[in-house]
Amino acid sequence: MLLLEFLVDGTAIPEVDFDIGPSWAGLLPISDKANESRQLFFWFFPPGPEGSLDDLIFWTNGGPGCSSLEGLLQENGPFSWSWGQAKPTQNDRSWTNLSSVLWVEQPVGTGYSQGEPNIRNEEDLAEQLVGFLQQFLEVFSEMKGKKLYLTGESYAGTYVPYIANHIFENPDKLELDLQGIWIADPSLSWDVVQEQIPAVNFVHKYEHVFALNQTAMKELDEIALRCNYAGYMDEFVTYPPKGPLPLPGKSTFADPGCDVWDLIFEEAIRVNPAFNIYRIFDTFPILWDVLGFPGSFEQVQLAPVYFDRPDVKAAINAPSDVTWSECSNVRVFPKGDGSLPSALTVLPNVIEKSNRSVIIHGLADFILIAEGMTCTFFHLFSSLWNGKQGFQTPIEDDSFIIDGVGALGNSHTERGLTYVEVALSGHMIPQFSPVAAFQSMQYLMGFRDSP
User: Which SUPFAM superfamilies match (predicted)?
Assistant: First the structure.
């Protein structure tokens, strides 16, 4: 009877004019304590006709504080209402075609979740998420023992490795068999590495897209030279690595006068007011977004955003008194995230303990730049996994092959880690390049031999 409390009628989702099949959604607590007030909202779908009955994919968006329902509705769910679409459509690259999928709004303070946020760091976050999963398995006991895959994007590059590490290091806590992780355009390291060092190179690579004037370009080149960004990749990123990489200055963000990323953003917006940090190719008109966040800035809409509509809340068993927004105004880490970046801490251990790990990055993403990924984990500091630092051989061009398409970026696998770069895709790869996301997930789950 308890399952009926969470049942979602697949024929009664507002604006969806096709049957998406049965699913279950609602709130579950993060612990079994009698007075537990903190609850996370989830939406759980069983596998479609082609999906595996033996596996479970967990998905989280990033932020911190951005809702995983954005991932469900606009990236990898069974129905899609993406930017510019007049109405929802069926998603033939839904991850439910792979297995059961669990989208969770976490941590507390995100989306429909309930209670006061109190986490101090990623260890606290992992503890609460695993507590939620324990409660989920008590309700959906048929999922116990399934193979688990932790996935997400953006700040989930911090969330997911810490959650995975917590599960690996506490094997008796959760009756799921963690197999590996998949993280897209992830935040793994210091801002200076993922944003500042590669920013000017990125503008030069896409010079005709940014269309900045020569005065602005000259200023950027001068700052990059003065701040030790210029030539950094050529000098320090070698295969195999020569050793730990130095920071270009004293700051893990940017030394005074060295914040080229924000300077580029200001110039780009001046030239192209529709400039989208998540996909640099966008220009006017900015597409309408049913979730109210179609680019660099949130947009005010005449109608409520989809998940803030009363009829939608009723259909998916969501609390009616919550004002839902794609990214929360609540500080989900009340005093900031006290954890170090995952690449410098838990990620090597997670890769070693996983069957496979996939890091995938859109080449048209400016908020987290693909070239910064090369610095971030493959060469930064002394991060080792499976006995060596970084990749030992270079990433080959045009090595990511999409079935029926051909080369659509680059791919490289060493010692249990697969890194994929996707041409034309921005930050949200399942949204911008759903076939690439789907194929790389098939690889993670062992359904194919190469990504």
Answer: alpha/beta-Hydrolases
Catalytically annotated residue among 166, 361, 412, 427 = 427
Per annotation, catalytic residue among 99, 100, 365, 440: 365
The token pair that represents 239 in the structure block? 């295969």
User: How does pLDDT run across 350-384, given as a tens digit for each residue?
Assistant: 999 999 999 999 999 999 999 888 777 555 555 68
Q: pLDDT by residue (tens digit) across 58-107?
A: 999 999 999 999 999 999 999 999 999 999 999 999 999 999 999 999 99
* Catalytic residue status for 365: yes
Is there a contact between 369 and 202 (Cβ–Cβ < 8 Å)?
yes
Tokens of 47: 């596998």
255 Rama sector, left if φ>0, alpha if ψ -120 to 50, beta otherwise:
beta
Phi first, then psi, for residue 59 (nearest 5°) are -125, 135
Report the pLDDT value the prediction gives residue 299, as an integer from 0 to 100: 79
- What confidence score (pLDDT) does residue 148 get? 98
| Band of pLDDT at residue 4, cut at 50, 70 and 90 | confident
Residue entry with tokens 């030394």:
255
Q: How confident is the model at residue 1 (pLDDT cuts 50, 70, 90)?
A: very low
Whether omega before 430 lies within 30 degrees of 0, making that bond cis, reads no
Q: Which CATH architecture has domain 2-189+339-444?
A: 3-Layer(aba) Sandwich (3.40)
Half-sphere exposure for 223 (CA within 13 Å, toward CB) = 23
154 has catalytic annotation: yes
Which H, E and C letters describe the chain, residue by residue?
Answer: CHHHHHEECCCCCCCCCCCCCCEEEEEEECCCCCCCCCEEEEEEECCCCCCEEEEEEEEECCCCCECHHHHHHHHHCCEECCCCCCCCEECCCCHHHCEEEEEEECCCCCCCCECCCCCCCHHHHHHHHHHHHHHHHHHCHHHCCCEEEEEEECCHHHHHHHHHHHHHHCCCCCCCEEEEEEEECCCCCCHHHHHHHHHHHHHHHCHHHHCCCHHHHHHHHHHHHHCCCCCHHHHHCCCCCCCCECCCCCCCCCCCCCCHHHHHHHHHHHHCCCCCCCCCCCCCCCCCCCCCCCCCCCCCCCCCCHHHCHHHHHHCCCCCCCCCCCECCCCCCCCCCCCCCHHHCCHHHHHHHCCEEEEEEECCCCCCCHHHHHHHCCCECCCEECCEECCCCCCCCCCCEECCCEECEEEEEECCEEEEEECCCCCCHHHHCHHHHHHHHHHHCCCCCCC
Which is the catalytic residue, given 67, 68, 154, 357?
154
Residue ranges, comma separated, of all CATH 3.40.50.1820 domains in the chain are 2-189+339-444
